[in-house]
């Protein structure tokens, strides 16, 4: 696997250009979407104004790696001890559920910022918008909110820009916090790429995840169409090439049959490495700059491809499974999943090469 810091920084700059005047939480949860959380933080240090992670454990790992930037903890503290850890390590937690309030009540520490999440229509985490004023009055005097009480929400259908729920959620959020002090954060990657300046009214922090790594979050498009560059390129070598006669079958279950004399190649990667087992025959790979189709079922450590139209391909050639020249969205679509799923499943046994 190759990863490009240049591409990562380019994509962050692209996000900021699409949301001028905003500050950015670079979302590096889930091990940096499979790219390495500490690596992403180090490469974006001094460029991103802050980092967003899922849980306190991820935030502590970042601090231990030397990250000094503000850190937003999206799932917030789950125990009294985690509130104390947030104070000790200068973390900005999210308060999103009634179950957190008793643990907060017993906490007297000061935080660099406390964020309240409102559920404007996602119906996952967050308080009802009508509770915004109540929570503000309840918490404004708490030591945890002394340095700032802020507001965020999350959109359910931002990847579909024309979906009516987007406007409904933005309006609910704006109405709920219009008279309240504090910073705002609304826009994820999809809203940044589709909304224009009107979408960021009083939303001072954008939270970009997937677009930082190259894929497009918008339904039916790929990153290169939006001037995004792939940070991850997954490659594996050809380890065997053989000639198949018409009628020969390939792989477990004999699900593919050669309809012509076929030059087949075996690639040293499989579902144990994070390549989707359910990728069907026809899923593209890239060999010597040309696309070749997957044939038969993906095995644990290997897969086979049709090399007939690339006669010069030989053992030892690198095969691009996704990345530079082959957007991960295409493989995700063929496999019936999304790019997030593929990026975060890349196995640790793939050797990582940093290319600057």
The number of distinct helices, counting runs of at least 4 residues, comes to 11
Summed up, the domain count is: 2
The top level CATH class name of the largest domain: Alpha Beta
Q: What structural category arises from helix and sheet content?
A: alpha/beta
Task: Tell me how many strands there are.
Answer: 18
- Overall geometry comes to elongated
- Order of helical and strand elements: EHEHHEHEHEHEHEHEHEEEEEEEEEHHE
Main pleated sheet: 8 strands, parallel
Classify the helix fraction into a percent range.
25-40%
Major β-sheet strand ordering: 8-7-6-5-4-3-2-9
What is the annotated CATH architecture of the largest domain?
Alpha-Beta Barrel
Approximate strand percentage: 15-25%
CATH fold assignment of the largest domain: TIM Barrel
Arithmetic mean of pLDDT:
95
Separation, N- and C-terminal Cα atoms: 13 Å
Low-confidence blocks of residues: none
